[in-house]
Amino acid sequence: MSVARSNAARYVSTRGRAPVLGFDDALLAGLAPDGGLYMPEAWPTLDMAGLAGLDYAALAARVMAPFAQDAIDQRELEALIRDAYAGFDHQAVVPLVQIDTDTWLLELFHGPTLAFKDLALQVLGRLFDRALAARGERVTIVGATSGDTGSAAIAACRDRASMDVVILHPKGRTSDVQRRQMTTVDSANVHNIAIEGTFDDCQALVKGLFADARFRDEQRLAAINSLNWARIAAQVPYYVAAARALGAPGRAIAFAVPTGNFGDVFAGYVAARMGLPVARLVVATNTNDILARVLATGAYRRGTVVPTLAPSMDIQVASNFERLLFELVGRAGARVQALMDQLGSAGGFDLEPAALAEARALFAGHRADDAAMTATMADVHRRTGQVIDPHTACGVAAVAAAAAPPGTPVVVLATAHPAKFAAAVTGAIGQPPPVPPALADLAARPERYTVLPNDLGAVAAFIRARTARA
User: Fold this and answer.
1) What is the pTM of this model?
2) What is the DSSP letter of 76?
3) Can you give the pLDDT at residue 148?
4) Where are the beta strands (DSSP E) in 345-461?
5) pLDDT band at residue 406 under the 50/70/90 scheme
6) Predicted pLDDT of residue 51
7) How many CA atoms lie less than 13 Å away from 224 in the CB half-sphere?
8) Torsion-angle region of 50 (φ positive above 0: left; ψ -120 to 50: alpha; else: beta)
C-alpha cells in the first residue's frame, strides 16, 4: 500500500471512527474510543546518516522525535530518554553479543526489571509525567501482563504523584520471579490484581474497561502496555541501533523476535517502514502459535492458551496484529472493524491472498515447544557459554526460518534475563543462572495483590475503591 510520508505527529485509529489526535493525546488515551489502536497518520523517514557516532540515548531521541513532534522537542526528549536509561546496568543499554558466524543476541534486559519492556516503559513513565504535569491532570493507568509488562510498568510509574497504576496478571500463569517483581512493590499508587483466567482474559478486561466510556472518563483511564502507540515508538530505536552496528544501511539485517502480542516485532515493522533495511522479521512463538499459524496459512484463529516455559508468550489473541492488519488492508478502518467483529463472533478470520502475500514478503513465523526451547538453551550454553532464557531460546530456534542469504546478520532479541526463569534454565543447562543483585532478596519480600474472578464488574469495582482521585 502507499502511505504519505511526513513529519506530522498525528494519529488515527485502526478502526477509522475516532478523532485524529496529536502525540500527547494519543499517549494519554492509549486505546482509541472506537476500540481501535492508534497509528501514525504518516510514516516519517529515518535519517541513517545522522545517526553516526551517537550513543543509544541520542540515537533513540533521533528515531522517536518525528513521532512526538509538536509535543516535545528533540533536545528535551533526549534528556528524558537519557534519564530513563541512567539506571541500566550496561553502558551500551542494548549490547550485541555474537553467538555464531552470522547470529547475534541483542540484550534487552539490562533495565530495572530485567526484561525488554523496560526500554519502552521507563520512557513512557516520564512522558506520562511530563504531559500530565503540563495539564494538571491525574490518570489511572490500567494494564494487562503476561509476565514482564506489569513489573516494568510498575517500576516506571511507582510513587508518581500524577497516576495510579493497576496491573492485571493471570493467576498462577507467570513465573514466581515475574509475579514477585510486581507484587512486592510497596507503593501507595500501585495495585496488583491476579485474575482467575489467562492473559487473554486479562487483556479483554482491560479493553472492556476502556470500552465503557463513562468508566473511562470517570477514572481518566490510560494504557501503558503495547496498546499504547508510544510503547511501540520507544521500541523502534533498538532495531535501528542493532542494524547500524552491523552495517546498515549498507546491508540488510534480519531479526528473530520472540513475541506473543506482536508489539515487539511490530516495532521492527515500523523501523522498516521508516526506511531501515530489514531483510526479514521472524515471529518466534511457543506452543501458543497463532502468529506463526496466520503467517503460514492466512487463518487467524483464536485457540486455547497452553501454559509453557515461556509464559510471557502464552497468548492466543495478539492485539498488535490489528496494527499490521490495518496496513495490509490499505488502512481501511471499516474493513479492520469487520474483521475484529468476526474475530469476536466467530473466533477468527482469514487474510485475503494479497494481504497474506504482503505480510509474507517481510514476515516469517516459527513455533518452538517446551522441548525445543530446552534443547536450544542447552545447545547455546554448550557452544558459547551464554545462558539464555526460554523466550530468547524461541528466537534462537527461529533463526533458520529467516532464510537469509549467507553473510546476512540475524539479530535475535534477547528479551529477558535468564534468572527470571531459573527453573526452566536450570532444567536445560544443569545449573542455575547467575542471580543479579536486583533479585537477590526478592523471595523474602512480602507480596500484595488481590485475586479477582474474570469479571468486568468486579475489576471496575476494585479500581473505583482503590484509586485515589486528585
Assistant:
1) 0.92
2) H
3) 82
4) 348-350, 363-367, 410-414, 450-453
5) confident
6) 96
7) 36
8) alpha
Q: Tell me, yes or no, whether 384 lies in a domain.
A: yes
For the chain, how many structural domains are there in total? 1
Please report, for residues 101, 334, 358, 429, the alpha-carbon distance to residue 353 in angstroms, rounded to integers and kept in the order given: 36, 19, 9, 43
Give dist(CA 214, CA 349) in Å, integer. 31
State the Cα–Cα distance between residues 245 and 309, nearest whole angstrom.
32
Evaluate whether 44 touches 78 at the Cβ level (below 8 Å).
Answer: no
Establish if 53 belongs to a structural domain.
Answer: no
Q: What is the per-residue pLDDT across 281-302, written as a single tens digit (0 to 9) for each?
A: 999 999 999 999 999 999 999 9
How far is residue 271's CA from residue 26's CA, in Å, rounded to a whole number?
20
Half-sphere exposure of 231 (CA within 13 A, CB side): 29
Q: What is the CATH number of the domain that holds 306?
A: 3.40.50.1100
Mean pLDDT of 230-252: 97
Three-state DSSP class for residue 108: coil
321 lies in some domain: yes
Domain that residue 377 falls in: 96-111+233-429
Question: What is the average pLDDT score of the chain?
Answer: 94
Cis bond before residue 453 (omega within 30° of 0) = no
For residue 34, the 8-state DSSP code is T
Show which residues are catalytic: 117
Cα separation, 107 vs 91, in Å, equals: 12
Is 419 a member of any domain?
Answer: yes
Cell (9 digits) for 58: 541520542
Angle among Cα 457, 463, 464 to the nearest 5 degrees reads 90
Contacts of residue 290, defined as CB under 8 A and 6 or more positions apart, other chains included, come to 300, 301, 302, 303, 315, 316, 317, 318
Please name the residue ranges forming H helices in 69-116: 74-84
